[in-house]
């Protein structure tokens, strides 16, 4: 018999669209983060969501599609909240971009399950047969291209040195972020992730900019939508 009181509170647009679907996504996210995708069955997810595996199959079709729904929900929230990280932002202010990256990192820490989820999934997805393999390959390429496009515009505007390789710098930024996330997860949060990441981006800014100055203080984020904490 299906229970009608889920253990997880729906959040974001999924709560408004379909509370049961939102509860399933939240439960799947929590269980994937704790046990990994491969060790999380539909039955366990259903128990966490207060529903049945049959209902999950009705809404998502399969565990593979449920995983993609979890990842897509996170991507949508990130794009809505952190505009400068959108591929079509058109910005060329590197310091503003790096402050936005740091803001995303800080918000991610408020939902450690998301960091744990991405840490586990990115390791599992190294196997081409893993259902999230294509997602992570596409995501890394897309995020690196988005960062590189801002860096390239900053070169064109004279903010960055003309001899830098935007693609390489973008990949370095992602590598440092992912590496610190792994260490933060292993240290169970006893690591100043944002502080270390900011120090790296500050050194990078000094090395890449024509004026040789660091990040400085972040500008106000304005009156746009308040940040929702997605994963890194």
Characterise this structure.
With 232 residues, the protein is mainly α. It folds into two domains: 53 residues, Arc Repressor Mutant, subunit A; 127 residues, no CATH class. It is 63% helix and 0% strand. It contains ten helices and no strands. Helix 6 runs antiparallel to helix 10 and helix 9 packs antiparallel against helix 10. It starts with 11 loop residues before the first helix and ends in a 24-residue tail after the last helix. The N terminus and C terminus are likely disordered.
Shape: elongated
Give the helix level as a range of percent. Answer: 55-70%
Overall SS class: mainly alpha
Roughly how many Å is the radius of gyration?
19 Å
Number of helices: 10
Distance between the termini: 38 Å
One letter per element, helices H and strands E, the order comes to: HHHHHHHHHH
Number of domains: 2
Low-confidence stretches: 1-17, 221-232
Number of strands: 0
For the sheet with most strands, the description reads:
none
**Average pLDDT number:** 81
Share of β-strand residues: under 5%
């Amino acid at each position: 018999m299906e229970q009608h009181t889920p253990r997880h509170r729906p959040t974001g647009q999924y709560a408004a669209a379909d509370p049961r679907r939102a509860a399933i996504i939240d439960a799947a996210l929590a269980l994937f983060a704790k046990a990994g995708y491969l060790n999380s069955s539909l039955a366990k997810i259903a128990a966490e969501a207060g529903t049945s595996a049959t209902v999950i199959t009705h809404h998502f079709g399969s565990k593979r599609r449920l995983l993609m729904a979890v990842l897509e929900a996170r991507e949508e929230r990130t794009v809505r909240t952190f505009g400068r990280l959108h591929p079509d932002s058109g910005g060329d202010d590197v310091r503003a971009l790096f402050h936005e990256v740091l803001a995303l990192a800080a918000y991610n820490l408020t939902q450690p399950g998301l960091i744990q989820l991405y840490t586990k999934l990115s390791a599992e997805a190294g196997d081409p047969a893993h259902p999230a393999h294509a997602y992570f390959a596409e995501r890394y390429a897309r995020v690196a291209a988005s960062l590189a496009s801002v860096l390239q515009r900053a070169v064109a505007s004279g903010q960055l040195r003309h001899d830098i390789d935007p693609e390489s710098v973008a990949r370095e930024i992602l590598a440092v972020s992912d590496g610190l996330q792994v260490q933060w997860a292993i240290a169970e949060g006893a690591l100043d992730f944002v502080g270390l990441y900011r120090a790296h981006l500050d050194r990078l800014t000094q090395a890449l900019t024509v004026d040789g100055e660091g990040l400085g203080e972040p500008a106000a984020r304005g009156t746009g939508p308040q940040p929702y904490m997605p994963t890194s």
